[in-house]
Amino acid sequence: MKKLLIANRGEIAVRIMRTAKRMGIKTVAVYSDADKNALHVKTADEAIHIGPPASSESYLVQGKIIEAAKITGAEAIHPGYGFLSENASFAIKVRENGLIFVGPSDHAITLMGSKLASKDAVKNYGIPLVPGTDHAINDVQEGKKRAIEIGFPVLVKASAGGGGKGMKLVDKEENFEEQFQLAKNEALSSFGDDDVFIEKYIGSPRHIEFQVLFDKHGNGVHVLERECSIQRRHQKVIEETPSPKVDQALREAMGRDAVKVAESCNYEGAGTVEFIMDDKGKYYFLEMNTRLQVEHPITEMITGLDLVEWQIRVARGEKLTLYQEDITANGHAIELRIYAEDPMNNFLPSIGTLEKFQIPQGDGVRVDTGFEEGDEIPIYYDPMIAKLAVHGINRPLAIKKMHRAMNDFHIEGIKSTIEFGHYVLDHPEFESGHYDTHFVGNYWNADDQSQETNDAQKVAAFLAAHHWKSHINAIKLPA
Ligand code: ADP
Ligand code: ADP
Ligand code: MG
Fold first, then answer.
1. Taking the model in full, what pTM does it have?
2. What pLDDT digit, counting tens, does each position of 142-167 carry?
3. Of 466, 471, 472, 465, residue with least CA distance to 349
4. pLDDT tens for each residue of 412-438
5. 168 and 290 share a domain?
6. Atom 21 (ligand 1): residue with closest C-alpha?
7. How many CB atoms are closer than 10 A to CB 396?
8. Domain span including residue 264
9. Strand 269-277 to 100-101 pairing
10. Using a 6 Å cutoff on CB, does residue 160 contact ligand 2?
11. Of 218, 194, 47, whose CA–CA distance to 116 is shortest?
């Protein structure tokens, strides 16, 4: 592989290029009108313009991306995350054109892209599943009946869901019909597929996921866990590894199950198996993401592996030269997703120009970003502008280092999640390691910080959010 096209933008495109360069592979960027001066374009050896800002007319247009690879002579395409990364028809098209798709087979993407199909695939492997329906529910009365059998609270979930969308919590029978309909509508508008199913809502849930890595020769390992329970809108904001809730025995059991999930679809490359764990330490398979994960840097920090390098090596057909017993955690790593959002106001998008954007540096501090000072944040894409990750020899020292790094991260022109990061890392619940996915609802929203926002700011934020939403709705998450 001499030349790689990265079918993505922002921090993940820049991050993939960094490894490709180190491996002596030339890089090709693609960009929309909104990104013509973006860092990922400047970082690449070559760049091809692929259309207007809306991703439905640029980053999601399969033909334009394959054409860009042909024009530049790139032999391989890395899809990053989001956009076309979990789109099986794209993987097929790339391969039909004689190019390497840096990712698993289209079969694995299709199977794991459907939450229902993936549960069906793993059920013979003895992997614990959340109690729920094993098929799509179309009839609201049937749904209600099943929900009563399962027991409230339940989640109505889109089978094709992702990014926390198409998911509705129903606390009691009276609310079932309304929430069921809302979930179905959101599933249709976000994923073009209104299949929904019902799952028991796990009380005091923790999101714990395992990184896996497989080659094309049937060898595979898990690369330890990540704890991702600090979430807003069912989406992660802070992740850490190792999980304060996972001891060695549990790690081995969950890791073995994660490997089995990957084996159930003959997985190739890097992927993530997500579990939900209750307050008694009982865990259940949630879904598998068949791509590089946003929060992969913390795994890299504690293991010393470069996951993008392994994705490329596997795609070239190389064998894994890693054995399970070699993969151990060195110290502790934490990541904060820095979103252009106002945490004081329901995490609504905050758009504008990065008047100041100064990045912290130092030992064990890593910033992944696709932005520079002076850049305007386009409204067309995901509002994550950077990831700040730190590595310390233990959890308390990693927390300390994260505070320092957040203090040294200077952003002006927009609101960001940095203040929220300080709040979480200072909180006794986080410090104790006993937090669950209700952290934001229980503490942050409950505290009175949102009361301080005055009416004018609320109106401005609402308009910004409305504008952003009408664009983001046009961006389809790959099924
Ligand atoms: P991960 O599963 O890797 O931790 P997320 O689930 O937060 O990350 O998001 C996965 C991908 O989906 C990201 O690329 C993100 O940009 C994209 N995504 C998340 N939410 C939305 C949305 N509402 N619309 C479009 N894309 C989204
Ligand atoms: P997505 O594809 O949108 O990432 P997931 O099934 O991975 O959907 O769920 C996203 C988040 O929603 C989880 O990290 C967790 O916080 C919450 N969640 C999902 N299923 C359950 C459940 N059965 N009980 C409690 N929380 C859940
Ligand atoms: Mg998920």
1. 0.91
2. 999 999 999 999 999 999 998 889 99
3. 465
4. 999 999 999 999 999 999 999 999 999
5. no
6. 163
7. 11
8. 206-443
9. unpaired
10. no
11. 194
